[in-house]
Amino acid sequence: MVLTRIKAILWLHTLRLWRYRWSFLNYTLAVTAWIFLFVLGALLFVPKEYLGLAVKSAFWVIVAWNVISECSSLIGAWMNFFISIGMIEEHIIRNISPFKVILGRVVTSFSVIFVTLFFISAILNGVFKTNVWSVNDSYLLALSFITLALQGLAYGVTIAAISVRTSVPHNMLEIINFAVIGLLMIPLEKVPNFLAIPFLCIPYMASAHLAKIGASGAQPYMLLEALAISLVETIIMLAIAAYMIKKSEEWIRRNGVRAIGFF
Amino acid sequence: MSLKTLLKSGFTLEIYFYKNNRATFLAMFLWPYLMLALILGMGYLFGSPSAFRQNVRMDVDPVVYYVASTLIAMSALSVMWGVGGSILWYKWSGTLPYMLLSPNRMSTTLVFSFIPRYMLGVLIQLAEFAPLIMLIEGVSNGLVKIGILALAATVGMIPLLGFSALFASFLITIEEETNVLSWLNPLILLFSGAFYPAYLLPYWARLISQILPTTYTVELARLAAIVGAPPLAPITFLIGILLGIALIYNSLAYLLVGYGEKKAMKKGAI
Fold first, then answer.
1. A249 at B interface, C-beta within 8 A
2. Greater confidence, B262 or A124?
3. Structural domain that includes position B129
4. Interface probe with B: pick from A19, A23, A40, A44, most Cβ of B within 10 Å
5. Cβ neighbours of B58 (radius 10 Å)
6. Residue A133 lies in a domain
7. What is the mean pLDDT of residues B184-212?
8. ipTM over 0.85
9. In this complex, do B178 and A22 lie within 8 Å of one another by their Cβ atoms?
10. A61-90 residue pLDDT tens
11. Sequence-separated (6 or more) residues with CB below 8 Å from residue A61
């Protein structure tokens, strides 16, 4: 029964992805164009001889940001649509957690992430004659992206759970996403020693630091600390998400859905 | 319905929109600085201002350079969404038939109800950036540069209104529901040299950039970033080009929006 439900949820999102294929392409092209626009602007500051290295560093920061923002915005913000078409009640009546349906959006978000990154890497490799995919430690890179994706998912589901009880300003989510990319760019080496651990404790920062080491082959500065913080943070964020889901479902059963969501 | 009424309705709509969407209003203040901080932050982390001057081949202040870019990019986006993209919103919300049936021509309603909203937005953004510009350039020089930015945003709006109305006509004619503007807008900004100068783009891209009104608006605004007093000759030259382009785009828009309107009414594709 559990497997059948998971299969149904995954099928729902895959089918929707196919039916909205033009919107999907539209969205990925838009994200690619925006990222390329900003990267071009930032690369104007880079001397020509260091362009290859800077493009690669910028690319992996963008990958990390893309994973975080797509997981939170495509998964979390979908709750708005789900509430407005009255699907929460429909699923609760049939004893299916609406949050599991929301989690099925990983199909959409990861499709967007992969296609966008394919476009961006093709453009950057072509324009700057570099290979952004050549990495130093692919295992470390994979681990960092798994933790980043899990943290992004946990954040997305947590805000989705909050949005059935109270309103969540959509603009503020976008602003938080923007602020995250600013933090992701800061190299840990440039953070004063006494602030390094608190900096790593900011959600996503430890995982992003691991990604930077894995991608560029930079000095493994505070590698073990980052690894430990990243894993602990992921577990804590997942636990918070699970708790929020449980509490929100209990609350919905008692009070019904407040049809507010995101605005 | 007089043009004054349209202007007044656009202004009232914007004021009530801000009043009822306080988070959006707050976000409007944050967005320009976030865009600016993102590019400057990335730039200063990966490179240096001296490399920037070498790459753009001009003696400019990078901060004022990107203030000008951000201001024009945000204003251009506002016009393209507010005029060009609004057709889709009217279509989706079911108000397009009312727009078509209103006493004024649709292009007139689209453009004139948008002007006060645009001016209000530009004014807020200029006021936001003014302290930063005056901090870098000093009060008197800063005021001159703010003046150039205001001039660029105002004159640049005229051809862009026609250009965006052409998009509106295109969207109504092709009966397309997909919001193509969402990916066309960043491409238009890219070819206009909004964050990367158009003269550094490949030859084929420069050809496209020459027919876009935003290219000249961006160039005009960027004259504010030149260290020292801004030169008068290029300012006059760019204003002349913008007014010429405005005549072409607005005449085309006046003719084609009417055509799109008639076609949509005939086919009931609204």
1. no
2. A124
3. 3-267
4. A44
5. 14
6. yes
7. 88
8. no
9. yes
10. 888 888 888 887 777 778 777 887 888 888
11. A181, A184, A185, A208, A212
Do the domain assignments include residue A261? no
Residue of B196, B208, B222 to mutate when probing chain A, most A C-beta within 10 A: B196
What is the pLDDT confidence band of residue A234, given thresholds at 50, 70 and 90?
very high
Residue A260, pLDDT above cutoff 70? no
CB A33 within 8 A of CB B186: yes
- Domain hosting A248: range is 2-255
User: Which residue among A39, A58, A178 places its CB closest to the CB of B34?
Assistant: A178
A218 occurs within a structural domain: yes
Q: Do B164 and B84 meet the contact criterion of CB atoms below 8 Å apart? A: yes
For chain B, which residues lie within 8 Å of any Cβ of chain A, measuring from their own Cβ?
Answer: 21, 23-24, 26-27, 30-31, 34, 37-39, 41-49, 51-52, 54-56, 62, 66, 69, 178-180, 182-183, 185-187, 189-190, 194-196
B64: distance to nearest CA of chain A, Å?
A: 14
Number of domains in chain B: 1
DSSP string, A30-74: HHHHHHHHHHHHHHTTS-GGGHHHHHHHHHHHHHHHHHHHHIIII
d(CA B113, CA B111): 6
Structural domains of chain A, count: 1
In a domain, A250, yes or no: yes
Binned at pLDDT 50, 70 and 90, residue A171 comes out as: low
Nearest residue on chain B to A178, judged by CA atoms? B34
